[in-house]
Amino acid sequence: MVGPKGRESPSRAGVFLIWQPHPIYYAELCYRAHGDRGTLERYREVVFKTAEFMASYPAWDADGQRYVLGPALIPAQESYGSDRARNLNPTFELAYWHWALDTAQKWRQRLGLEREPKWDHVMQRLSRPFMDAPKNRYLTNGHNHQSGRLPLYLPGNGGLLTAVAMMAGGWDGCPRRPAPGFPDNGQWNIRFEGLRRMP
After folding, report:
1. Which of 31, 91, 111, 154 has the highest CB neighbour count under 10 A?
2. CA 180 – CA 140 distance, rounded (Å)
3. CB atoms within 10 A of CB 95
4. How many domains does the structure of the chain reveal?
5. Maximum C-alpha span of the chain
6. Are residues 120 and 146 part of one domain?
7. Rounded Cα–Cα distance for residues 140 and 94 (Å)
8. Closest CA relative to residue 69, chosen from 104, 93, 102, 100
9. Phi and psi at residue 126, in whole multiples of 5°?
10. Are 165 and 198 a contacting pair, CB within 8 Å?
11. Burial letters for 53-67: b for 16+ Cβ neighbours within 10 Å, e otherwise?
12. pTM for the complete prediction?
C-alpha cells in the first residue's frame, strides 16, 4: 500500500497493522535462495533496523512481567478495526514478532556478531498466544468459518494452505525426510513441486 515514492495510500486499517517483520522475512527468503555473505551484507541494515524498531515497540506489562503488542492495532484478519484502541496481543503478530527477532539474531551470528541482548529480552518475554475463539478453529472441511455472512475466511484458509505446504516441503528444524509433516508409515503418497523449506 506504499507507492514508488514512499507515500501511503489512504487506508483506515493500514496505519494500524503491525507487519514490521515483513522486511526480515523477505530478506531471509533472499538469503535462503542465495546463501552467500553478499546477501547478508546487502540486507543487514534493513534486518537490523527493523529488529531495533520491533524491540522498541512492545510495551512492558509490569503486573504480568511480559511485553505486550498494542493497543492500538488491527490484527492480520483486519476484522477488528473498530476495536483498534483495545486490541491486544493478536496471535499471528505475536508469533511473527518472535520469529522475526529470532531471525534477526541469526543474521547477526551469520555475520560473526554477538546476539543483541535487548532483542533476546523482548523475544523471551513476549506475551504467550492462543485463545479458544471461532477464528482459531477449522471445520472438518478445512474452512475457517466466521459467520453465516462469512462462511469461508480466506486469510485463515491461506494459513491452512501454508501449513500443508510446510508439511510437504518442510520447515526449519523439521525431520530430514521427504514430506516431513506427513506420517512416515507408507500409507501416504505425497506429490509436490517447487516448494522450499519455510522459515
Report:
1. 31
2. 22
3. 14
4. 2
5. 54
6. no
7. 26
8. 93
9. -65, 150
10. yes
11. ebbeebeeeeeeebb
12. 0.70
φ, ψ at 128 (rounded to 5°): -80, 140
Question: Which of the listed residues 87, 107, 131 is the one where a domain comes to its end?
Answer: 131
Tell me which amino acid residue 165 is.
A
Mind listing the pLDDT tens digit for each residue in 149-176? 777 766 667 777 888 999 999 998 999 9
Asked if residues 20 and 53 have their Cβ atoms less than 8 Å apart, the reply is yes
Using alpha carbons, select from 124, 77, 117 the residue that is nearest to residue 97: 124
The answer to whether residue 5 is domain-embedded is no
Q: Print the domain residue range for 196.
A: 133-199
User: Cα separation of 99 and 24, whole Å?
Assistant: 9
Q: Are 126 and 97 in contact (CB under 8 A)?
A: yes
Extract the runs of DSSP E, i.e. beta strands, from the chain.
Answer: 59-61, 66-68
Q: Are 118 and 147 within one domain?
A: no
Instruction: Give the position of cell 500500500.
Output: 1
